[in-house]
Design a protein that fits this description.
Elements lengths: L3 H15 L4 E6 L11 H6 L6 E5 L2 E6 L2 E6 L5 E5 L9 E7 L4 E5 L6 E5 L7 H4 L12 H8 L6 H5 L10 H11 L12 H20 L40 E5 L2 E5 L6
Antiparallel strand pairs: 1-6, 2-3, 3-4, 4-8, 5-7, 6-7, 9-10
Helix pairs in contact: 1-7, 4-7, 6-7
The structure holds a DNA duplex (16 and 16 nucleotides).
DNA sequence: CAGCGCCCCTGCCCGC
DNA sequence: TGCGGGCAGGGGCGCT
């Protein structure tokens, strides 16, 4: 479910409720997520405070003085702030209770998400070592995309979804950014000009920022940390619109599969 | 290394 | 109305 804007929305929603209050209890109801939720996390974080929160790629990082809780929402995960003793629902897998009365609870029906712990610097962790640049920083530039893509045969859509290149661009926003840039998703990344990468880079930033402002995209049941849905769905121009007329030229939007993921685009506007 | 497919899992939607 | 098939916002991993 969540791409960068949804993860960012979640982080913003939960942070103020969990910062600087001792963790009183950790409950692991089902440890079989993407990787087993390490039991040691309980002894490591109980009585600790979260002193800062941040996002790296689609990972949420909750820092304590002893290390970092790493949370990934996978395809169907959501984190909510709940009052104490809220009855568990199906797929509520992990919960952190705080002295201030708040509970932070992970629900994840498909269990592709993760809750991990590291006592080390985050950049040393294997999951983070090979991550590319953050798209909403000045390090993410057209020059970077251009240079990394030389001699690459992969389709541009898969190239911008490659987390070794740039992080946080998932299927929805890859589709939207390519449409906004007028680039055919099948075009080889290595054959795209610097000028077109300027456009693409600009559009990726614009769309991600706009989606964050709208609280993310709610497709099925995504809610930010405070339970509000996202409103970016109404801005989607191609994703989920196979067979509908292109908003620019009225040509019928086409759907193809790239790397087991659906791509929707306009064969007239994108080339 | 690049470039692929596969797979983890549940829920929902569609067509018959 | 019931059921099987296919698809879903991610991404690590193993193979060629």
């Amino acid at each position: 479910m969540p791409e960068l804007p949804e993860v960012e929305t979640t982080l913003r929603g939960i942070s103020e409720h969990i910062l600087n209050s001792p963790i009183t209890k950790v409950t692991i109801r089902n440890s079989s997520l993407r990787w087993p939720v390490p039991k040691e996390i309980i002894e490591h974080v109980t009585h600790q405070k979260i002193i800062s929160t941040q996002r790296r790629a689609k990972y949420l990082l909750l820092k304590t003085p002893k290390g970092t809780i790493i949370i990934h929402l996978g395809m169907s995960g959501s984190l909510r702030i709940l009052p104490p003793q809220t009855p568990y629902e199906k797929h509520d897998h992990v919960e952190f209770c705080f002295a201030n009365g708040n509970a932070l609870r992970l629900k994840d029906p498909r269990r592709f998400g993760a809750v991990l712990w590291t006592g080390d610097a985050i950049h040393k962790h294997p999951l983070f070592r090979h991550l590319g640049v953050e798209p909403l920083t000045e390090d993410f530039t057209a020059d970077l995309l251009y240079n990394l893509s030389r001699n690459r045969k992969v389709a541009i859509k898969q190239f911008i979804m490659d987390s070794k290149v740039v992080v946080g661009v998932g299927n929805i926003y890859a589709n939207e950014a390519l449409f906004a840039s007028g680039i055919n998703p099948k075009r080889a990344a290595g054959k795209i000009s610097l000028q077109r990468y300027v456009k693409l880079c600009t559009q990726i930033k614009r769309i991600l920022k706009l989606a964050i402002l709208q609280g993310g995209t709610t497709l099925k049941d995504f809610v930010g940390g405070t339970g509000k849905p996202g409103y970016f769905k109404q801005e989607l121009l191609v994703y989920g619109r196979k067979g509908e007329p292109c908003s620019v030229c009225q040509n019928t939007l086409k759907e193809i599969r790239q790397g087991q993921r659906s791509t929707v685009y306009c064969t007239h506007c994108q080339n």
